[in-house]
Design goal:
- By secondary structure, the chain is of the alpha/beta class.
- It has two domains: about 5-15 and about 360-455, Immunoglobulin-like, CATH 2.60.40.1180; about 20-355, Alpha-Beta Barrel (TIM Barrel).
- The chain is about 25% helix and about 25% strand.
- The protein is built from eleven helices and 17 strands.
- It has helices spanning about 40-45, 70, 90-100, 130-145, 175-195, 210-220, 240-245, 245-255, 285-290, 300-310, 340-355, and strands at about 5-15, 50, 105-110, 160, 200-205, 230-235, 260-270, 320, 360-365, 375-380, 385-395, 400-405, 410-420, 425, 430-435, 435-440, 445-455.
- The strands form two sheets. A ten-stranded mixed sheet has the order 14-13-17-11-10-9-1-12-16-15. A seven-stranded parallel sheet has the order 2-3-4-5-6-7-8.
- A hairpin with a 5-residue loop joins strand 10 and strand 11 (about 385-395).
- Helix 4 (about 130-145) runs parallel beside helix 5, helix 5 (about 175-195) packs across helix 6 (about 210-220) and helix 10 runs parallel beside helix 11.
- The radius of gyration is 23 Å and the shape is globular.
- The protein starts with a strand and ends with a strand.
């Protein structure tokens, strides 16, 4: 490959199918203030496969939904009695979400508690007094949404996740790793005994490797039960670090003999640092951290998303959900002026790819001291349409980038769009000369292109 060519696409060499389940989110249209901010159409345009329910009460203020303590507030009552549950708000939230085309990835347990780092000042992350009793409550929730129990539903909710980030501290679990391992196994066995067709797993660790991770997996092995999926999280500004997370998790699971357990990265996001995230940070720092050039919601973050999603298509990763928490705020899809931000457009960009195309083709990316080009070539199921998705993450070039293309001789370019610091999926010019495709950058830094082709008639 010539050094001036950033990547080579070979559309005559199909390398398998895309995995749209890697394109999910922790967000959904809000239930609170719905009559003021109806975002259904915008979420439909993102084409997410899954919506993970973690932290949903935090961005739906005043609503008693999702979390176990909201659905079953009095833990001393009998979990066999439907009258002891409050399902109404969660019923409506799940209806709204599924109406936008997203499947539910249900996190059982509690949202994070940011109120303190002292165990005696927490309410929802305390260790349940009776693990078997708590597991019965969770079985009632699953039964309501999958078996029609308590005037419920027969939803096809496949994934049920036990807890979230237990090793993070008292914000998420006030007990020890040994207590959590025993709790996890208790719930896993109880749910699988009544609902063998659903996938039960978790526990959404902050990273795939560590003492807590080993303790939980060893407890599962000792109990002779494998989780259906193993979930973990990652926040970083290094695409390669996040791209290799599934391999790390896969190797760990295989070492315990859990070769059929799926890997899920169901919280992930670009992170430069946490300095401007907390409420104690000065307002200017908060705005810079969120909306500045390297901010959580700006072009660097947006192209990072595409780099990761492109890279994951060749990794042992069954599902993923972007965090993407509430529609607004530090991890949402709108900026402080309530405008759709760059991350929204990057996710829409990738959603268009996985919703219209089926096959991925061979792509050879040129070596680089610090890799900045991530590229994907795709074909529709009938091979009548093709597309090229390019993410230039933090590239220094300010002029043009060239790519070799093969196998598109009988196709014509019908549309090309760019996402950069100033443009949001705006039409752009591309130059195709022979077997070379060239795109232009408006300024140095991060940018992405989606170029689509149709077979000539």
């Amino acid at each position: 490959m010539a050094t001036s060519v950033k990547a080579a696409f070979d559309f005559s060499n199909i390398k398998g199918k895309l995995n749209p389940a890697q394109h999910g989110s922790n967000s959904a249209p809000p239930y609170s203030r719905r009559w003021l901010f109806n975002m259904d159409e915008e979420f439909k345009s993102l084409h997410f496969m899954y919506a993970r329910t973690h932290d949903w009460p935090l961005w739906n203020p005043g609503q008693r939904l999702i979390d176990t303590h909201f659905i079953f507030p009095l833990m001393h009552l009998a979990p066999q009695d439907p009258k002891n549950y409050y399902f109404r708000a969660t019923d409506e939230m799940l209806r709204i979400t599924q109406a936008t085309g997203m499947k539910i990835f249900y996190r059982l347990g509690t949202s994070i508690e940011h109120n303190s780092d002292q165990a005696n000042e927490h309410n929802n992350t305390l260790v349940p007094e009776d693990f078997d009793h708590y597991a019965e409550v969770l079985a009632g929730i699953v039964r309501h949404y999958t078996q029609g129990w308590a005037n419920g539903f027969y939803y096809d909710i496949e994934y049920w996740e036990i807890w979230n980030e237990p090793e993070l501290g008292t914000q998420t679990w006030c007990g020890t790793k040994e207590e959590f391992a025993r709790f996890f196994v208790t719930v896993l066995k109880r749910l699988k005994s009544e609902f063998p067709k659903i996938k039960v797993g978790g526990p959404a660790f902050t990273t795939p490797l560590g003492e807590w991770q080993n303790a939980v997996l060893q407890a599962c092995k000792d109990a002779n039960i494998a989780p259906d999926f193993y979930s973990c999280h990652c926040y970083t500004n290094e695409p390669e670090k996040l791209i290799r997370r599934p391999r790390e998790a896969r190797e760990l699971l295989d070492s315990f003999g859990f070769t059929q357990t799926e890997v899920s990265i169901n919280e992930w996001h670009f992170r430069q640092d946490w300095s401007g995230v907390t409420s104690r940070a000065p307002r200017d720092l908060v705005r810079y951290t969120m909306d500045g050039p390297l901010g959580h919601c700006n072009i660097q973050s947006a192209v990072f998303n595409l780099a990761v999603l492109i890279g994951w298509q060749d990794e042992p990763l069954e599902s993923a959900c972007y965090y993407g928490a509430g529609p607004d705020g530090s991890f949402g899809y709108r900026d402080h002026e309530h405008r759709w931000n760059k991350c929204f457009y990057s996710m829409r960009m990738f959603g268009e790819v996985v919703s219209q195309y089926v096959y991925k083709v061979a792509v050879d990316v040129a070596p680089h001291p610090y890799r900045n080009i991530y590229a994907m070539g795709v074909l529709s199921e009938d091979k009548e349409k093709a597309a090229i998705l390019i993410a230039d993450y933090a590239g220094n070039e300010a002029a043009t980038c060239s790519f070799a293309i093969k196998g598109l001789e009988n196709y014509r370019c019908v549309e090309a769009r760019i996402l950069d610091n100033t443009l949001d999926l705006a039409p752009c010019q591309v130059n195709i000369h022979g077997n070379t495709l060239t795109v232009a950058k408006n300024d140095p830094g991060s940018a992405a292109w989606l170029i689509e082709f149709e077979k000539s008639k």
